[in-house]
Give the backbone structure.
Amino acid sequence: MLSIHTIRHMRLQPGALLRAVLSGMALVMAQAVVSQTPLGLNPTQVGLNDTSAHRISDEIWQATGFGNTFMVITDQGNVIIDTSLPATAPRHKQLLQAVSDAPVRYIVLTHAHGDHTGGVQLWREEGTEIIAHSEHEEFMHYQTRLAGMFALRNAAQFPDLPRPTGNAAQAAQSNPGNYEARIQPTILFDRDYAFELGGLTFEILHTPGETYDHLSVWIPELKAVFVGDNFYGSFPNIYTLRGTKPRWALDYVNSLNKVLALQPDIMIPSHGDAIHGNAMINQAVSKYRDAILHVHDQTVAGMNQGKDVYTLMQEITLPDDLNIGEEYGAISWTVRGIYEGYMGWFDGNPANMYATPPAAVYADLVALGGGADKVAELSQQYLEGGDAVRAMHMADVALTADPVNVPALQARLAALQQLLTDSANSNEAGWLRHGINETRARLNQP
Ligand SMILES: [Zn+2]
């Protein structure tokens, strides 16, 4: 059984699902998200009914949303940290400016994902400095370069997502150019950067993890640290199904260690709620870090023993004391992300060096097995035996031979529906819904 199945056996932490849904979804190029989770939560609704900004301390205020916006108030003007999505930014600005409408002196972007950069133009004033890490430039170009592909993947993973403007399929075929992103920051730094404003020091540290350009902001006078998307309430999306460059597990570990070394009293993630108290922060961040390190080290050990990626996806789990939930990221996807991040796509089987895929012989096997209807029967038997993933593979084999075979399409649909019923992971659920819609369309069902 594929280890994605382990997701539904994991213990849920209180509030973890909501925080996970809100967290690092990192929707590249997406304009908004309306993705129902298995429990019916809708991340775009979070904070929508807020009539005021949330006070974290006298100086730090949060507007909550799919991507929070923070305002740090000083007597020489304000600093904005992250700016949420374009659709949410106007409301966030309204709520935060009700607290203080002093000049915006700096905007700091924890990273280049669209749910953090969407309000930059809105907040920017004459003379506002915009700070990001130097990797921000390439990350923006990368997202623009592959805008069509990301549009297709986001539309699949988040089926309820309002489509980005323009035709995604058309965009997928276009070449927007390699270096065409609009680069908004006025200050790009490599290792770290610091400035003072109104008696507060803003120490900005490069903390790669969710992205290469990820940074954290430390204000020593307040013992407060902003950690962007490097921490949230589920195992992180170290590989995300919509597609991403590798996210390096050891980058997360090292960056979280940098955060711990600051000994913060307030830790402020860009999705979910701030954690107050150094002991609480230490406990949460250490567990999170150790969970990532455990999966990394187990994967490396298995690779060095010559184990294949599927074996490790099935074998590697978290011990109970490191269980941080898998409602957003998943251990098995992370194992594969680490494995293929380190080794790339080739699995060591000479048959797989070539452009002819295994599926090229499926039609012959189906003929040998008595035809697509027979293979669809096997699929149904797997499903009845409780193995929906094998059922789906078997249906796919039949459909390679006969793409409109109704029993195979019905078996595939039933397998997908069973997996969706059992799913407790919002990203898994998104792709299952995508598969269901696609299979229904092939069956001409509404
Ligand atoms: Zn985010």
Q: What stands out?
A: The first helix runs from residue 16 to 22.
